[in-house]
Amino acid sequence: MKRIISLTSAALFALPFALLADDGTIISDGVPLHYSDEGTGPAVVMLHAFAGSSDLWESNGLMPLDGFRVISLDARGHGDSGKPTSSDAYGTQMVDDAIRIMDVRGVETAHIVGYSMGAETALKLATTHPDRVLSLVVAGSGWSGEAEAQTYGFISDALGGVATFGDFMAAMAPDETGTSEKDVRTGFAMLSAHGIAPDQDAAPLAATAGGMHEVIGLSAAELSAIGVPVLGIAGEMDEERKNVARLGEAIPDFSFVMIPDADHLSAPLAPLFTETVSAFLKD
Asked: Which residue among 74, 103, 137, 146 sits deepest, i.e. has the most Cβ atoms within 10 Å of its Cβ?
């Protein structure tokens, strides 16, 4: 019997650590949050984009990340997390969710990596909980202001009038002819890589967008107080590129990398994106 136990223990320790990763749910202010906690080393918390999920970080190869403990979560209203339909349940509570997952998982400080909505959440987190942040990667969104708040308001109103996110995309899509079947397949593949499901309920996403004014609109003084290294990344063809680069006007320790020939959806899936983030975290 002892030999069987010994052999079983040895086999377990021989398994790749990814197979022993923790995948579960915590409750944050009454909302279930799905998370994955994988690897060993300094902690990295990853925050995904609007309408997507934590699937993004597996799609682009940042999870698992050699030498790091990576915690990714589906933001409330997204993925496998709970989906309140009131905007009062969002806003700065999304920042609180990131801190709560760190607390529950026993993480005192972490590197924070965010894309788009996740980048905006990461910046807000760094200004409200500076003692919990080792470094920041903010990609796909940057120094957002009134114009971006109005855009989120427009998105919230538009989503409030449809049943699914796919309906919203169809209504917002330009009326173009000549789109090839290959282009359509490529577009759906990128949406899937982000964890964006066209058939997901629009109401929670409308509520998410309706609360984002609480997260964005940071002042120059707030940004200049960020005392950790910050890496900004954006695709060359991403309309948010200027907002990301503009963070260098306020944040003391800021560097910027542009992903050539990439837009908002394709940038985080480019090999250069993953290589850049990995090198920054290991520096």
From this structure: 137
Contact 43, 110 (CB under 8 A): yes
Averaged confidence pLDDT in the chain: 91
C-alpha to C-alpha distance for 136 and 54, rounded to whole angstroms: 17
DSSP 8-state class, residue 23: E
Strand order in the sheet with 22-28: 22-28, 31-38, 69-73, 43-47, 110-115, 133-139, 230-235, 254-259
**Where do the structural domains in the chain lie, given as residue ranges?**
20-282
Q: Write out the DSSP string of 87-101.
A: GGGSTTHHHHHHHHH
The span from the first CA to the last CA of the chain, in angstroms, equals 48
| Secondary structure of 141-205 in HEC code, one letter for each residue | CCCCCHHHHHHHHHHHHHHCCCCEHHHHHHHHCCCCCCCCHHHHHHHHHHHHHCCCCCCCEHHHH
Residue 137's φ and ψ, nearest 5 degrees, are -120, 115
Contact between 148 and 216 under an 8 Å Cβ cutoff? The reply is yes
Which DSSP symbol is given to 6? H
Does the domain formed by 20-282 have CATH 3.40.630.30? no
Q: Would strands 230-235 and 43-47 be described as parallel, antiparallel, or unpaired? A: unpaired
Residues 6+ away with beta carbon under 8 Å from 234: 139, 140, 142, 240, 241, 244, 245, 256, 258, 259, 267
Which token pair is 50? 């609007």
Would you say the C-alpha torsion 53, 119, 94, 211 has a positive or negative sign?
A: negative
Q: What is the pLDDT of residue 180?
A: 58
Would you give the DSSP letter of residue 132? G
Q: What is the pTM of this model?
A: 0.90
For residue 97, the one-letter residue type is D
Q: Which residue is associated with the tokens 């090839």?
A: 180
